Amino acid sequence: MRKIFPALIGFAWTFGIALSGPSSAQQSLRIGVSLSITGKQYSVQAGYGREGYLLCQKDVNAQGGVLRRSIEFVIYDDGSDEKTAARNYEKLITEDKVDAVLGPYGSAITEAVADVTEKHRKLMIAPMAATTSIWEKGRRYLIMMLAPVEGLSEGLLDLAARNGLKTVAVIKLDGLVANAAADGASELAKTKGLQLVFSETYPNGTTNFSGILSKVKATKPDVLMAASIRLEDLVAITRQARELDLNVSMLSSVPYGLLPDYYKQLGKDAEFVYSGSFWETSLPYPGNQEFVTVYEKEFKRTPAVQSAGAYAACRLLTDTVQRIGSLDSDKLREALLPLKTKTVLGDFAVDERGYQTAHKAITIQWQNGQQVVVWPDDVTSGKPRFPSPPWSQR
Fold first, then answer.
1. Rounded to 5 degrees, what angle do the CA atoms 326, 330, 333 make?
2. What is the C-alpha to C-alpha distance for residues 307 and 259, in angstroms, rounded to an integer?
3. Which runs of consecutive H residues, i.e. helices, occur in the chain?
4. Which site among 27, 62, 209, 317 is 20 to 30 Å from 192 CA-CA?
């Protein structure tokens, strides 16, 4: 039988703490997390989240800690596996007896571990999950930070309608997030006066998309949206669209067309591609530019949305604990439900379910190797390059 994780990732890192920092005689405040450090499915995305958590650990401790205690992340590897992640949180809570927990990477794993944290009445802020259904099951101790994934295509479709486009095709991986994103796109297309001319689901593990892309090509859509939580799917779909000379006015890879790794793997083939996103380095949120600068110095790469989400969730937790003077989950919930604030990730406010009501999704387009925010109008960093030229003219 395959050996079961968790395997504790070998740290806590030791960071220098100023003289005004927490007393070394006090035990650290330990925050438990399971992340997909390994596993082909999620390890790229979770790697960014891990760095966001660690940067928060460093910053909070440099500023004096929480309740005069330094914070220390206890991170287990779930290998991109939902059941392993659930076991990790059970261990963190019952055996390691961590003081608090924060969320794992992704909606599917968050859905799996939320039953564990709920059972133990342990409040969990989930910075890397955005599927509405997770918050429709009566859970009390789960706090959402991202805008719902069902609205992630709104900017793409709004821009399409503004530019006189008429038809949309959607292909998607069969799974929680991609299904939600595609269902949202179908509903939003109707509201924008666009016609959905093709929609098809492909199974997990697909590597050859020529068949489904040939079907798309036959419908001659103006817009093609590919939805998958697997970065390698979106890269392969883009490459194979070029090989088939499948030309559309707008091509969108959701959600991981937003990752720097998407462009690194595709190079110029990623040019003109759109993606829905939850955050971007250029956005004018409080502290965002400072966060980006420090992150790049610390980790020698540009942060992604998972980095910002994890950092913001950690700061939201530690700031709230400091403000109310308690780690009690019911008191934390009472403090967070009415809270309206801004983080490096953007606006934060939740309803009684812990469901996010303030954060806004954006749309980016790759232009000259840069992620340019092209929607909504009040935060754009550039204009969309429309329409996308045929592959043969690039």
1. 90
2. 11
3. 43-62, 82-94, 107-119, 154-162, 176-191, 210-219, 231-243, 260-266, 288-299, 305-324, 329-336
4. 209
Contacts of 208 (CB under 8 A, 6+ apart): 240
Kindly tell me the burial class for residue 73, based on how many C-beta atoms sit within 10 Å of its own C-beta (0-12, 13-18, 19 or more): buried
Calpha distance 243→387 (Å, rounded) = 19
Output the CA–CA distances (angstroms, integers) from residue 304 to 57, 259, 282, 345, in the order listed: 18, 6, 12, 11
Q: In angstroms, how far is CA 85 from the centroid of its own chain?
A: 17
Which token pair is 224?
Answer: 């093609």
**Residues 162/374, Cβ–Cβ less than 8 Å:** no
Give 178's contacts (C-beta < 8 A, 6+ positions apart): 172, 227, 228, 229, 254
Supply the DSSP symbol for 226.
Answer: E
Residue 136 to residues 111, 166, 188, 273, 361, Cα–Cα distance (Å)? 11, 34, 21, 33, 20
8 A C-beta contact, residue 76 and residue 34: yes
Q: CA geometry: angle at 278 spanning 274 and 280, to 5°?
A: 75
DSSP, collapsed to helix, strand or coil, labels residue 336 as helix
pLDDT (tens place) for every residue of the chain, 394 residues total: 333 333 333 333 333 333 234 444 479 999 999 999 999 889 999 999 999 999 999 999 999 999 999 999 999 999 999 999 999 999 999 999 999 999 999 999 999 999 999 999 999 999 999 999 999 999 999 999 999 999 999 999 999 999 999 999 999 999 999 999 999 999 999 999 999 999 999 998 999 999 999 999 999 999 999 999 889 999 999 999 999 999 999 999 998 898 899 999 999 999 999 999 999 999 999 999 999 999 999 999 999 999 999 999 999 999 999 999 999 999 999 999 999 999 999 999 999 999 999 999 999 999 999 999 999 999 999 999 999 999 999 9
User: Residue 245 gets which letter from DSSP?
Assistant: T
Question: Are 116 and 78 in contact, with CB atoms under 8 Å apart?
Answer: no
DSSP code, position 66: B
Question: What pTM does this model have?
Answer: 0.88
